[in-house]
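We treat protein structure as text, and this decision shapes the records that our systems exchange. The tokens are whole numbers drawn from a learned vocabulary of local backbone shapes. Below, we set out a record of this kind in full and without editing:
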Amino acid sequence: MRFVIQRVLESEVKVNEKTLGKIQKGFMVLIGISNSDTKEIADKMIKKLIGLRIFEDEQGRTNLSLDSVNGSLLLISQFTLYADCKKGNRPSFLKAGSPDSAEMLYEYIIEKCKEHVDIVEHGEFGADMKVSLINDGPFTIILDSDEL
């Protein structure tokens, strides 16, 4: 499982010009799910995501977590995080999770995050989404379950 986490001042996701999710200060998270991912892996990733201390404190140090700043989450599924570009110029997506299992885990992640964060918005699995954001910093972190 891969999370690309961007600390944002605001972020929004639209499908067919209709806003599905919109947040202010918080994390916009792109979520890639592979065939080998499980709920246990998702739980570890969520724990790390929720606990990340990457918001600035009074001294300007990245020392505050999402809950310390009353931050929100915008969760976006993105199978392209498992693109394999080793051969040729056209990426292969064989390492991305099958749509059925990936969607189930994506929905699981959304529900588990709602247990910890007051505002959790999300996109639409498998849809052509338009995501906009104002990256605060910029500050971007990549979490890979293979490295946790």
Q: What stands out?
A: The chain has two helices and eight strands. Residues 2-147 form a domain with the D-tyrosyl-trna(Tyr) Deacylase; Chain: A; fold (CATH 3.50.80.10).
